[in-house]
């Protein structure tokens, strides 16, 4: 369906509360990621996590026709880069050294969530190319008319990054991890694809954990105890405190409290227990939709050897296999993931600078940056303990 220009209305909403939830979710439903659903984005705002007081000014682009929501993109106006997980210090510091403006920026993202999936949310019965063009043009006009120095689209679907290139954006490659279900019957079936040394090492880790008396179980959806949500908040804070200035404590206590009602249906928890103790000693929070599972937050009240690997890697993989889930994204960072069978993959962001000098700097150097990132991905994949002719 082609919507005549005179019937199309584009505007920026200052909060998710301004937007009808079911209408937004109807557009987000085809996405693999659960993190673009109205409940998640609204909870980030309502909890004060992604809010003006923390430098996130919601500015969501929406398109309507005849009163019907037909297009949307979650956007935030920002004067910093915190919580984006696309580490742009290289560019922002270059701007400072050269006396060039870098902020404010218009950022397309689901805040604090480095998981691929960003794209325009569009009704399936509209002309996708035409509506995309209008949405890109509206973003540009808004930025140019309001002194915004740049626009960034984070953790995009690859096709969306490619489409953005046609509207003045440039793609930046990043490294991530993914486990894929190759029709495995159980965890041992997956471990059989690894070389003998790695299989033995993982089984030793699991045995050592079992011998310590720790057991692990995964509960999902309505089976999640209410007590897990404040417990996860405490563990989230504990984990980030441990990392000091490198911690990423962006989510408020209210966010974890709100998940129990707003997002429980998308969640699962891997919980570790000591004998005769009702409260877990550690939790890992997972989120899922369709055939993909995401590792999000974890923490432990005790430092137990190998507990992190079991709670965040092996137990979720076993859960994915048992439930027919095809992909597991364990989250960012850690070369140890490669040694446990997680393949390094490319993720993407798209960037546009409205100052021609910053635009030239970015375009001049980004090919080299992207090649270095590709080399890093290849190096990590060389570490994969794949079974070869045993």
Describe, in plain words, how this protein is organized in 3D.
The protein is of the alpha+beta class. The chain has 2 domains: 5-176 and 345-382, 3-Layer(aba) Sandwich (Aminopeptidase), CATH 3.40.630; 182-325, Gcn5-related N-acetyltransferase (GNAT) (Aminopeptidase, 3-Layer(aba) Sandwich). 36% of the residues lie in helices and 24% in strands. The protein contains 11 helices and 15 strands. It has helices at residues 21-28, 38-46, 89-98, 128-145, 158-165, 187-191, 196-211, 228-242, 253-262, 307-322, 356-382; strands spanning 8-13, 57-58, 60-65, 68-73, 75-78, 105-108, 121-122, 150-156, 170-180, 215-220, 267-273, 282-289, 292-300, 327-329, 343-353. The strands form 2 sheets. The protein has an 11-stranded mixed β-sheet. A 4-stranded antiparallel β-sheet has the order 1-3-4-7, sandwiched between helices. Strand 11 (267-273) and strand 12 form a beta hairpin. Helix 2 packs antiparallel against helix 9 (253-262) and helix 8 (228-242) packs antiparallel against helix 9 (253-262). The radius of gyration is 22 Å and the shape is globular. The mean pLDDT is 96.
What is the approximate shape?
globular
H/E order of the elements?
A: EHHEEEEHEEHEHEHHEHHEEEHEEH
**Content-based structural category:** alpha+beta
What's the helical proportion of residues? 25-40%
Distance between the termini: 57 Å
The biggest beta sheet reads: 11 strands, mixed
How many domains comprise the coordinates?
2
CATH superfamily of the largest domain: Gcn5-related N-acetyltransferase (GNAT)
Secondary structure tally, helices: 11
Q: Beta-strand level of the residues, as a percent range?
A: 15-25%
Taking all Cα atoms into account, the compactness measure Rg is 22 Å
Uncertain residue ranges: none
Please report the first level of CATH classification, the CATH class of the largest domain: Alpha Beta
How do the strands of the widest beta sheet line up side by side?
A: 2-5-6-8-15-9-14-13-12-11-10
CATH topology of the largest domain: Aminopeptidase
The CATH architecture name of the largest domain reads: 3-Layer(aba) Sandwich
Q: What is the typical, i.e. mean, pLDDT?
A: 96
Strand tally is 15
